[in-house]
Amino acid sequence: MDVLVFGATSFVGQILCRYLGDRHGTTGSLKWAAAARSQAKLETLRDKLGPGAARLELLVADADDEPALRAMCARARVVISTVGPYALYGGTLIKVCAQTGTDYCDLTGEVLWIRQMIDRYQSAARASGARLVHCCGFDSIPSDLGVAFLQQEAVRRFGQPCTSVKMRVKAMRGGVSGGTVASMLNVIKQAAADPALRKQLGNPYLLCDPESIEPVLQPMVLAPSWDADFEAWCAPFVMAAVNTPVVHRSNTLQAHPYGMDFHYDEATLTGCSKRGRLTALGITTGLGAFMVGAAFPPTRWLLTRFALPAPGHGPSQQAQQSGFFDLHFLGTTTAGYRLRSRVVGDRDPGYGSTARMVGEAGACLAMDIPKSALSGGFWTPATALGDRLLKRLQAHAGLSFEVLESE
Q1: Residue-wise pLDDT tens digits, 211-230
Q2: Coil, strand or helix at 233
Q3: Is the preceding omega at residue 322 within 30 degrees of 0, hence cis?
Q4: Which residue among 29, 62, 63, 349 is least packed, with the fewest CB closer than 10 Å?
Q5: In this structure, are residues 319 and 144 in contact, taking their beta carbons and an 8 Å threshold?
């Protein structure tokens, strides 16, 4: 088969299977199958997909059952994993894919775990030819491909890349699932227990190979601040700690086409008035309170028990369809040229759009990127899939990439 969805009965796994079924059926040009640890839940999922899914193949494997995972990977060209928190349930599958040459992509935003996987299995992946691509959902495809798109346009228009890029969340609406919450809480729990991990979380070069970089001080929006370029107040963006290391890794993997002194930061725009300032303050305070509350066992238990969704739960299908995101980018070259662009999605960013993004990423890796065109190892969406994925996203996944203006 071309693509195997592992964790198909999870909240986002079910959304992904519905998308693949609607887009490809079960007998189309893309051959795909579903895998999870429960045969009964898989059969329930297949029934929900309707009569057209009657021939959908189902495979049973547990995240810690290495022999079963090896047998599963032997059946697939690409495995899409939706099993999180990945730090708890994803390591064995990465090991198996890296050793067997099976291509892989996922939705993780757990940068500490990604760093561990690169350190442990990069050599094996290079030897086997396995191409592994993390962060193929809202974190971090819009940021990573958004920067790559902006840079291509800058080179085409100005003959040089932008050495400084800002991404600002102009608008966004969407819900949060229990699986995402569980992953975030696990990262915070790890960092709270280990000062070295806390330091790593604040490192924008965390995912870069140390020998490939000459670190420069990076801008970070950590408090309410006025952004003169966008003429608005801005607040910290919760996914910046994931997206920024991915964008910098893309730069280093391509031998620094954005420049050795490339600067990148992300934030959320809140408006230009006094209300915008108060909103930025509220977001900053709320994020800080959540981080502190999640760091301590008693308050973490209270959050999970009374305030946060449980794993397996998330926004309704109507909420997914009514959600959206609008991300704006501003790049500046060394000569002072400026270029503005945007990336827009027409579904809930975390689930409606994310399922489409990872589905197209898996299909792209299986169908559009031959083994001869990309060697084994850990890649980013921009470096592994690039323009071919961008075209897929615009044609099928409800995303658009467009230039707004140049100066």
Answers
A1: 989 999 999 999 999 999 99
A2: strand
A3: no
A4: 29
A5: no
